[in-house]
Amino acid sequence: VDERTGDRLRFLFVDHGKLLSEYYLFETPLGEACRAVGLVDARGRHTVTAHRFRHTLGTQLAERGARLDTIMSVLGHESPAMSMVYARISDPEVLRDYRAVLGPGAVIAGPGAEALRTGRLTAGAVDWLRTNFFKTELELGHCLRLPEEGPCECDLYLTCSRFVTTPAYTPRLRERRAVELRLIEDARERGLGREVERHECVVRRIDTLLVDLTRSSSGC
């Protein structure tokens, strides 16, 4: 029975009455295909995952003007916030940011900002980032990982060496900071000391990013 609709379903991919796993159906053959054409990282792991196809679909739906509820339905999201990650890609403010972030005098912050400022990225890498800027968007900025490095799997991207953000994300940074402060108070009331420390760490990271963006904007 489908959990969302309540309809009875007949499954297609079964073996002796048991469902075949997503890993068997997708990740295993996809890994074999990647290795066959050389899409692997330095450790021999394939650089394209099944989840990336979902992200591509969400991105394409948003860029072509699909409604939020349509994106939610297609991707099976239960919360609008999950689909907003894709919807925001078409935000005109982000488009202006895209045109400015890699240009001369761009205001950027984050661990990856220095690599852009000092030219440590190759010309090819910069061209790839320009072309794929929308697809590298995170909640509070962008990931500068290149295709040969594989998909970003870092949950702590605020301190990841490839993370960069710009003034266009300042409102989101402040919103996230306010959420983290509420989570700190909630964790304190519950006596969860480790959770308090974790959220306080995130607040400090966001504060550093906001200060760096302000300094860059003022020319300091």
Description:
Strands 1-2 form a two-stranded antiparallel ribbon. A two-stranded antiparallel ribbon has the order 3-4. The relative contact order is 0.09. 53% of the residues lie in helices and 4% in strands. The termini are far apart. It is globular and about 65 Å long. The mean pLDDT is 76. It has a domain at 92-220. It has nine helices and four strands, in the order E-E-H-H-H-H-H-H-H-E-E-H-H. By secondary structure, it is mainly alpha-helical. Helix 2 packs antiparallel against helix 3 (68-75), helix 3 (68-75) packs across helix 4 and helix 8 packs antiparallel against helix 9 (193-217).
Question: Gist?
Answer:
With 220 residues, the protein is mainly α. The chain is 53% helix and 4% strand.
- H-E string: EEHHHHHHHEEHH
Enumerate the strands of the largest sheet in spatial order, edge to edge or round the barrel. Answer: 1-2
Note the total helix count. 9
Please compute the radius of gyration using only Cα atoms: 20 Å
Count of strand segments = 4
Helical fraction equals 40-55%
Q: Could you list some keywords that capture this structure?
A:
220 residues, mainly alpha, globular, 9 helices, two-stranded antiparallel sheet
